[in-house]
Design brief:
10 strands; 12 helices; binds 2-acetamido-2-deoxy-beta-D-glucopyranose; Rossmann fold; alpha/beta; about 40% helix; globular; five-stranded parallel beta sheet; single chain
């Protein structure tokens, strides 16, 4: 009763009408086929080499003093490099397959692509120093990748973007779950939930508030089935831990969508798809799911794998101890594209 009386009071003084107007939100609008920009954040699964990047770690800059920010000129002249060390898997990764940007060997300016790829992922990144230490002093944590974007890239490229044609993608957690996998002082579900909460409050929300409305989240690859873990009696992380992360991500995804009705949030279940590939590799042209070529870092294995005692790199699910092969990225991206096409609102 009191609430209703208060509401009538607001009507009388004309506040309700205004309030309704101010919080009016449009419906989400997403169509993968119309997407012109992919803005990506994450770790080595997502990083691409830039000519202005930290070698083998980033598209642009690093966490070192003087390297965190960048000029408009530096951003606009920065090219994506496609070569053996241009990603963390010896060849193109999912964001390059998805956009077709930077897929060709050599240098590509994002602005020259039909779907522009602006990739602020940093190899080795965790979500935040608040939860876990960084791998190197130069590693840019996820929450700082979005700060970099919002501070130095948004004014240059974001302001002019038709943001209804932009998709903001987050694939993160590989390092967080691995770095903490042997902790004995945390409850993992609560710990993961805290980390994922940080993703949403410190990275997703600021991107939303500046006007981006389309978000893609990706859960964890089957890290419980890496070469080291398939021969271990107690894999770290194990499948239960991977699921805890995934369940928390799904919950946060739903909560964000419920709270922001004009946002389109999508959760791609990479874990399910990739476990399916591991269970049925032949269907995807993969012959080896349990190990990787020991000489993976030698560019010569691309040309002459047999001299290294290996199969062609495309025959492996895993590229090395923690990364999937470029071929696995390609196979996954085909499935992800189907997923995205079905998301039209
Ligand atoms: C890839 O390109 C980068 C940047 O141009 C270069 O430093 C690196 O040596 C190249 N790597 C290979 C394997 O060609
Ligand atoms: C990175 O982000 C954290 C959390 O917002 C912040 O405390 C820190 O100052 C940021 N680092 C830099 C270099 O801005
Ligand atoms: C848990 O222990 C690890 C070392 O094993 C330490 O680095 C970390 O800070 C501890 N975390 C918490 C939340 O106490
Ligand atoms: C995985 O590890 C967690 C944490 O130690 C444990 O609670 C869970 O039972 C383990 N799951 C499996 C499948 O062994
Ligand atoms: C998988 O590849 C590794 C490295 O090349 C090799 O040692 C191993 O025997 C292969 N496993 C199978 C089942 O072919
Ligand atoms: C996981 O972390 C350990 C250190 O705790 C490291 O030795 C290992 O290479 C990492 N594994 C992956 C798959 O990144």
């Amino acid at each position: 009763m009191a609430a209703r009386r208060f509401l009538s009071f607001l009507y009388v003084i004309g506040l309700v009408g205004k309030h309704v107007k101010a919080t009016y939100t449009s419906k989400p609008h997403f169509k993968w086929e119309d997407t012109k920009y992919l803005i990506a954040f994450g770790d080595s699964y997502t990083f691409v080499q830039g000519t202005a990047g930290y070698p083998q770690y980033s598209f642009i800059g690093s966490y070192l003093p003087g390297q965190f920010g960048f000029s408009p000129r530096k951003l606009l002249s920065n090219g994506i490099v496609q070569n053996f060390t241009g990603t963390a898997q010896g060849g193109p990764n999912w964001v390059e397959y998805l956009t077709g940007c930077g897929l060709e060997p050599g240098k590509t300016l994002p602005r020259d692509c039909a779907v522009q790829l602006w990739d602020f992922a940093f190899a080795g990144a965790d979500v935040s120093l608040q939860h876990l230490p960084h791998h190197h002093p130069f590693t840019v944590p996820l929450v700082n990748q979005t700060q970099q974007y919002l501070t130095w890239a948004e004014p240059v490229i974001g302001k002019k973007m038709d943001k209804s044609k932009a998709l903001v993608a987050f694939w993160i957690g590989v390092n967080d779950i691995n770095d903490s996998s042997k902790f004995t002082n945390v409850s993992f579900p609560a710990f993961y939930n805290d980390i994922i909460n940080t993703i949403f409050t410190q990275s997703v929300r600021p991107m939303y508030e500046i006007g981006y409305k389309n978000f893609l989240f990706v859960n964890l690859p089957p890290l419980d089935r890496t070469a080291a873990n398939v021969v271990s009696e107690s894999p770290r992380p194990n499948s239960t831990m991977i699921d805890w992360w995934g369940n928390s991500l799904a919950r946060h995804n739903e909560m964000f969508a419920a709270k922001h009705k004009d946002a389109k949030t999508m959760l791609y279940d990479a874990n399910k798809f990739l476990n399916g590939v591991l269970d049925n590799p032949g269907k995807y042209g993969i012959k080896n799911t349990t190990s990787y070529c020991q000489d993976f870092a030698d560019p010569d294995v691309l040309e002459r794998p047999e001299l290294h005692g290996c199969l062609p790199l495309d025959d492996y699910f895993w590229y090395n101890a923690g990364h999937m092969s470029s071929h696995t990225h390609k196979v996954m991206t085909r499935n992800m594209e189907n997923f995205l096409r079905k998301q039209t609102t």
